[in-house]
Write a structure and sequence with these properties.
- This protein starts with 20 loop residues before the first helix and ends with a helix.
- The protein has helices at residues 21-26, 29-41, 43-80, 83-135, 138-141, 144-156, 160-185, 190-198, 201-220, 222-236, 238-246, 250-302, 308-349, 410-417, 440-445, 461-466, 476-485, 489-493, 515-526, 546-559, 572-575, 595-601, 604-614; strands spanning 370-377, 387-394, 399-404, 425-430, 433-434, 447-450, 534-538, 564-568, 580-585, 588-593.
- It has a domain at 31-349: ABC transporter transmembrane region fold.
- The chain has 23 helices and 10 strands.
- By secondary structure, the chain is α/β, with parallel strands linked by helices.
- The strands form 2 sheets. It has a 6-stranded mixed sheet with strand order 6-7-8-3-9-10, sandwiched between helices.
Length: 617
């Protein structure tokens, strides 16, 4: 779908919840889960908040009744001049002051509980999202729909559960107040109670309608928000700064950023203006209802039906009751909106994952190495397979080189071997056992892989190396041994704090490395796993000069004498050292053999080798 035009809100009939009562009520299915989430986050704070809400709900009616008693007692004391009546009036004043103080204390306590729960709950929900992200497969990460769900969940869902609970407790508090107000107001007239409820309904329906539209707008434009976030990253991160400045990209990218905001703001503005207009118009109905009741109460007081204190109380009760009902209905509308946003969280948390059923920790034939049997792989939604009919056998101690143009399937083959992807055809065997039957953690522990786009962690030097084996992440002896094998030890030991030197520019005192030095750090990671039977290097020396590369691969061949090694490289000076060279073209094996045999065959490999060799003459 093109995103060049404004992302208009989809019509309500196409998946909208706003016009269907059944869907409107159905969306509240997340309320119970949110309440349970808050309860299990901290039961003590939840119970304290609930008790404070109940108490705060009763106090306004108590204050209104005490106000009535003060006025009536003052009038009586003025008429009789009796000391007892004066003392009673003072007692009611003191009681009201105490009630107001308690109410303020309850409200402050609610705010404290909310603040503490917000921090705890925000952390818990973010951890839930990150834990779920850790269970997703690489293919799911690359699925834009699932990625959008995660983006939506992370943006709003960490605050929405508490917002929903706060509104729920507020609804309980206001409901208690409304019942208390109703008990007082019904003594004046049952009709006044009906008017109190009916006058608040139009605003509620308007709020619910606009909440639904706001959610659809939020969901519909997630790709634009993500693009905006990406542009912010490119414009504000130091690892993009060189090219942005060198190519003069800043103005162009900032222009795109502004254009996206302009499109999004247009929808926000239209929604806000409509919401404000209808909210004001329908709110006038509530104002008219209040002043109609006000006039009614005044007339009854002038006629002698009500005392002056009664008039004061009923006016206050009607006004505060109307506010409580409006707040309650608004809370219901807000709960509806919170539930819509929470649906993003729970839909992401419920994204199905393929459970690993493999349990094996070893194979029946360790000497068999790795076998690819008619392996094929097609990306979801792709028109043609990325790999097709791959048959390979790599025995322990052998070195395999993969050669081919970009997009020929070399890296995809490595991802299949390390079970980042699952084959769509055929099978892969390791030590005589199908990869599907292996415990995935055990399998990946036996494979050390360094991809071309390895991560440059903003951490200490040793920790950057330690990421290659999380079980021994802090083992400084392992760091040094791995760095020696990866030929990084010399320059690391010259750094200010050696293996404890901070890398990157995100944190104070951070040191930056050259491209070749970073590649040696990444190469060292592969040697952190002493249990690894297979070492895979995907373009590991692309940032190094030819002499450094030759030195590394001579060294690499020596220290991996008993291990299987797979090398992906475009430099034939290193590829020729492999025991077996495989040329991939359009996802299929086009040629295979040693360097000498492939040159004799005078095929694609020979052509590419001669073409590259000519560049050095």
């Amino acid at each position: 779908m093109s995103r060049s035009n404004s992302p208009h809100i989809p019509p309500a009939s196409a998946g909208s919840n706003a016009k269907s009562p059944r869907r409107y009520l159905g969306v509240f299915r997340y309320s119970g889960r949110a309440l349970g989430l808050v309860w299990t986050t901290h039961r003590g704070l939840t119970l304290a908040m609930m008790a404070l809400v109940l108490a705060a709900g009763l106090m306004p009616a108590v204050v209104a009744w005490l106000g009535k008693m003060i006025v009536d007692t003052v009038v009586l004391a003025a008429e009789t001049q009796a000391p007892a009546n004066r003392h009673l009036a003072i007692m009611y004043v003191v009681a009201e002051a105490g009630a107001i103080g308690l109410l303020a204390g309850f409200q402050r306590g609610i705010a404290v509980c909310e603040s503490l729960l917000r921090a705890l709950l925000g952390q818990r929900v973010n951890v839930m999202i990150l834990e779920k992200a850790g269970t997703l497969s690489l293919e799911q990460f690359e699925d834009s729909e699932i990625y959008d769900r995660m983006t939506q969940a992370r943006r709003e869902a960490s605050s929405r559960p508490l917002a929903l609970v706060r509104k729920t407790f507020g609804l309980i508090q206001n409901s208690i107040s409304i019942i208390a107000y109703g008990g007082l107001l019904i003594q004046f007239s049952p009709i006044a109670v009906v008017v109190l409820f009916v006058a608040a309904l139009p605003v509620f329906f308007a709020e619910a309608r606009f909440s639904g539209e706001a959610f659809r707008l939020f969901t519909w434009r997630t790709p634009e928000r993500r693009e905006q976030l990406y542009l912010e990253t490119v414009l504000a991160r130091e690892d993009y700064a060189k090219e942005v400045k060198l190519f003069g990209l800043s103005s162009m990218l900032l222009g795109r950023y502004k254009a996206i905001f302009k499109r999004l703001f247009s929808d926000d503005r239209n929604l806000t203006l409509r919401k404000g207009f209808w909210g004001y118009l329908l709110g006038l109905l509530g104002t008219l209802a209040f002043y109609g009741a006000y006039g009614w109460i005044v007339i009854e007081t002038v006629a002698g039906v009500l005392t002056l204190g009664g008039m004061t109380m009923y006016i206050l009760v009607f006004k505060q009751g109307q506010a409580a009902i409006t707040a309650s209905l608004s809370a219901i509308g807000g709960m509806y909106e919170d539930n819509l946003y929470l649906s993003n969280l729970y839909e992401f948390l419920e994204v199905p994952i393929t459970k690993d059923t493999g349990r094996a920790s070893s194979g029946p034939n360790p000497k068999d190495g790795i076998r690819f049997e008619n392996v094929g792989f097609t990306y979801t939604g792709a028109a043609s397979p990325t790999l097709q009919g791959i048959n390979l056998h790599l025995q322990p101690g052998q070195k395999l080189a993969l050669v081919g143009h970009n997009g020929s399937g070399k890296t995809t083959l490595i991802k299949l071997m390390s079970r980042l992807y699952e084959p769509t055809e055929g099978r892969i065997l390791f030590e005589g056992r199908d990869l599907q039957d292996w415990d995935i953690a055990t399998l990946q522990d036996k494979i050390g892989v360094i991809f071309q786009d390895f991560v440059q962690y903003q951490m200490k030097v040793g920790e950057n190396i330690g990421t290659g084996d999380v079980q021994n992440f802090d083992d400084q002896d392992r760091w040094q041994d791995a760095a020696t094998k990866g030929l990084a030890a010399d320059f690391i030991e010259r750094m200010p704090n050696s293996y404890l030197t901070q890398l990157g520019r995100w944190f104070a005192g951070g040191q930056e490395l050259s491209g070749g030095e970073w590649q040696k750090i990444a190469l060292s990671r592969a040697f952190m796993r002493r249990s690894a039977n297979v070492i895979v290097l995907d373009e590991p020396t692309s940032a190094m000069d030819a002499e450094a590369e030759a030195k590394i691969f001579d060294h690499f061949r020596q220290i991996t004498e008993d291990q299987m090694a797979i090398l992906i490289s475009h430099r034939f000076s290193t590829v020729r050292m492999a025991d077996q060279i495989v040329v991939l073209e359009h996802g299929q094996i086009q040629e295979r053999g040693t360097h000498e045999k492939l040159l004799e065959a005078d095929g694609e490999y020979a052509r590419l080798f001669k073409l590259q060799a000519a560049g050095y003459q």
